[in-house]
Amino acid sequence: MKKKLNPYYQDEKSTLYLGNALELLKDMEEESIDVIFADPPYFLSNDGISCSSGAMVSVNKGNWDKMQYSGYDDKHSFNRDWIRSCKRLLRKNGTIWISGSYHNIYSIGMALEQEGFKILNNITWQKTNPAPNLACRCFTHSTETVLWAKKNDKGVSHYFNYQLMKEDNGGKQMKDVWTGSVTKPSEKIEGKHPTQKPLYLLERIIRASTKEGELILDPFCGSSTTGVAAKRLGRMFIGIDQEEEYLNLSVRRLKSEM
């Protein structure tokens, strides 16, 4: 580490930090991380409405997801900043996964290329039970994108457990469209996070791109689904979030896995 960081929580496999990711990432050790999964702000909290369990609800996720910048240029600069910091932390053969919707994924893709990453896959996560479209003015939004990219050091191969993914897919090559439900209520018994990803999604990502014992970083960890999946699969985990409420939720989830 550049300077000693004080963990908010720590156990044998997991470490959580409270604070701004852009600041904390700069104080972490260069080329110390094997794989990064990031679920950054989508900037979709615009006071609109959606549907949840048959009820009309606000689309607002929290102040952390609201557009606090003057426009596209500032939002894109934010994405380039944190992606640049992540690249510094990745080992030479490291890879990064970033999830997003149409609100932010095009900026993410451009930022990855601008920062020298090579995009390996454009994963489409197709939700079997998306929220209905209340406005009825466009198609129902039922997918999110997960971009997978390598650090792009010449002559250095990234890790991909091709055979395991093929076995998981009944002996056939796994495609880049993954279908499944949104997060189950059983995964929210310790509390709710508005953008919590399902465990099966993170488990597949971790099994595909890491080996047991390797270190995974999530710079916007929220309720730490990444950490729970990492712990279940015998990986090490570092999570960062600026909301103490969600770090406390993360702690409860991680402790329940012990």
Low-confidence stretches: 54-60
* CATH H-level superfamily title: Vaccinia Virus protein VP39
CATH class: Alpha Beta
User: In angstroms, what is the radius of gyration?
Assistant: 18 Å
Largest sheet: 9 strands, mixed
What is the straight-line distance between the termini?
A: 27 Å
Q: What amount of the residues lies in strands?
A: 15-25%
**Main sheet: which strands, in order across?**
1-2-11-10-3-6-8-7-9
- Helix and strand run: EEHEEEHEHEEHEHEHEH
Kindly give the count of domains.
Answer: 1
CATH topology group: Rossmann fold
Helical content band? 25-40%
Number of strands: 11
Outline the structure in words:
By secondary structure, this protein is an alpha/beta fold. The chain has a single domain, classed as 3-Layer(aba) Sandwich (Rossmann fold), CATH 3.40.50. A 9-stranded mixed beta sheet has the order 1-2-11-10-3-6-8-7-9, with helices on both faces. Strands 4-5 form a two-stranded antiparallel sheet. The radius of gyration is 18 Å and the shape is globular. About 5% of the residues have low confidence.
TL;DR of this structure?
By secondary structure, the chain is an alpha/beta fold. It is built from 7 helices and 11 strands.
Please outline the helices and strands.
Blueprint: E1 9-10, E2 14-18, H1 21-25, E3 33-38, E4 49-52, E5 55-58, H2 72-89, E6 90-100, H3 105-114, E7 118-127, E8 143-150, H4 162-168, E9 177-180, H5 199-209, E10 215-218, H6 225-232, E11 236-241, H7 244-256
Parallel strand pairs: 2-11, 3-6, 3-10, 7-9, 10-11
Antiparallel strand pairs: 1-2, 4-5, 6-8, 7-8
Helix pairs in contact: 2-3, 5-6
